[in-house]
Design goal:
Blueprint lengths: L1 H24 L1 H7 L7 H28 L2 H25 L5 H22 L1
Helix pairs in contact: 1-2, 1-3, 1-5, 3-4, 4-5
């Protein structure tokens, strides 16, 4: 089971690495992939910088955690994606954004897998 968690955690790290690179090289399709439109002006800079940084952080933390068997990096990646899920729920409840249940479930599953692998490494 430990090896399965490691492989799945690594695959998610690779997925988020690809998403991060899309924000660098093709931000329009990266935005579209997460149901956004690419903004204009200063908002575009913030959108690419902030969202790209989030994807790079998750990719880097999770990849390093899997590669070097460092639980704290996997916990950090899990925290980032878990915070995204919580903030999506708040955006829906407080600010009228649509509740993207499938996206929230995906984020919670990925965060749980990263945290589960981290717990196995810590044991």
């Amino acid at each position: 089971m430990d090896k399965v968690l490691q492989i799945i955690a690594g695959l998610f790290a690779a997925f988020f690495t690809l998403m991060a690179l899309r924000w660098v090289f093709d931000p329009s399709s990266a935005a579209e992939a997460i149901q956004m439109t690419l903004l204009d002006g200063a908002a575009r800079s913030s959108q690419i910088g902030d969202i790209g940084a989030m994807f790079f952080a998750m990719a880097g933390f999770s990849a390093y955690g899997v590669w070097k068997k460092r639980a704290e990096f996997l916990f950090a990646a899990s925290f980032v994606i878990g915070a995204a899920a919580v903030l999506r729920i708040i955006a829906s409840l407080v600010h009228g954004a649509p509740l993207l249940v499938e996206v929230i479930i995906f984020e919670l599953v990925v965060g749980t897998i990263w945290a589960a692998h981290a717990r196995k490494l810590s044991a």
